[in-house]
Amino acid sequence: xxxxxxxxxxxxxxxxxxxxxxxxxxxxxxxxxxxxxxxxxxxxxxxxxxxxxxxxxxxxxxxxxxxxxxxxxxxxxxxxxxxxxxxxxxxxxxxxxxxxxxxxxxxxxxxxxxxxxxxxxxxxxxxxxxxxxxxxxxxxxxxxxxxxxxxxxxxxxxxxxxxxxxxxxxxxxxxxxxxxxxxxxxxxxxxxxxxxxxxxxxxxxxxxxxxxxxxxxxxxxxxxxxxxxxxxxxxxxxxxxxxxxxxxxxxxxxxxxxxxxxxxxxxxxxxxxxxxxxxxxxxxxxxxxxxxxxxxxxxxxxxxxxxxxxxxxxxxxxxxxxxxxxx
Length: 327
Ligand code: BDP
What we know:
The protein is about 50% helix and about 15% strand. It is of the alpha/beta class. It has a single domain (about 5-325), classed as Bacterial extracellular solute-binding protein, family 7 (D-Maltodextrin-Binding Protein, domain 2), CATH 3.40.190. Helix 3 (about 40-55) runs antiparallel to helix 13 (about 250-285). Mean pLDDT is about 95; it is low at about 15-20. Bound molecules: beta-D-glucopyranuronic acid (BDP). It holds the Pfam family DctP. This is Solute-binding protein.
């Protein structure tokens, strides 16, 4: 052990009280588009705290929440360049970088929320993380955060494909999602998360689609009062690390990072369920009308998007069968 490290270790209890940022060999900047207090942000911050403690100060961790480091697309580029070391991003944003993940981005590929969880908890979930890690994307995928189910929210009620006809609906920048909204009769428009609020306010878009916590915490509900439970997308959201940062970790540190990311996954799931229930109550209290579709009404959205599954799912026919077979 060199002199510098001995000194650091001796000073550790004191240093940890202040901040270990200056002392650590490895500094992790974590980018989040969601605000402080949001379930993944809380779980990721807890992961960071444990990382600092359990690495005995060799690793430092700083959360940059609320999108301060840019849109998710910009953050992915920064992570690839190791300007940011870690992030959690929607799988929608990973699709254009690692096309193989798009099988999870297909509309109605999961039967329901529980089905998605069973899939990501099993071998297919790990395979998909490995696909990201083994791609050219310079990312190491460590764990999955839950992002609930995504539903349409609009300025006027939507129960049928005809109701959605011509409505401009914001989606994430992924052709699969544009095709999905278009197949449902709407007009899919890609934009970054941070632009949705004012786009709804000014009428640039007529709606968007997301889970309840995002609808609430990003204040979109203020300008879109109808929430149609289509459940067309159920996207798990990977926690990724810059490959360059990962390669700077020694094997013990890598094991620690992976272990704590998996712990964060478990922690976030509990927080997610609690937050979703709270969000539902708050949204309803704020006057958002929840529109539950009859099985036939929902089937119309499923049938309309068959062409999207056929087109974008064609290379993954076997995998889609394996996903379907998961109980
Ligand atoms: C949320 C995801 C977030 C995405 C956002 C979006 O958690 O990562 O950025 O949707 O649609 O549900 O932009």
